[in-house]
Amino acid sequence: MPTTTAAYLTGLAATNDDAGDQPAIKRLHRSDTETVVRIAFREGQVMREHMAAHPILVLGQTGAIDFTVDGSTYRLEPGSAIRVGARVKHALHAISEGTVTLVVIHGT
Questions:
Q1: Residue 2 pLDDT class (50, 70, 90 cuts)
Q2: What's the CATH number of domain 24-105, 1.10.8.420, 2.60.120.10, 2.40.30.10, 3.30.565.10?
Q3: Coil, helix or strand for 66?
Q4: What is the pLDDT of residues 64-86, one digit of tens each?
Q5: How far apart are CA 105 and CA 102, in angstroms?
């Protein structure tokens, strides 16, 4: 899919209305350079340690989500973000109901 000159994205702060035990994950955009994903948590939900094949940027949208990488934990809240390199293990834990935006950087 070729890059366009603009992509307007909405719904970045939507809540998790799914009935399951896992965070609600929804891809909002994909281009040849990046993928944008909304991850919505209910309080206490966890994404166990995992890694991404590409560098990522995770932005706090709502609530408080603890992001653990390299033995350190960072609190993602509105106005904060963390960048993680490719193939670096990390985990997320929802301290409160909240949403983060994940940007996977897979192109140049």
A1: low
A2: 2.60.120.10
A3: strand
A4: 999 999 999 999 999 999 999 99
A5: 10
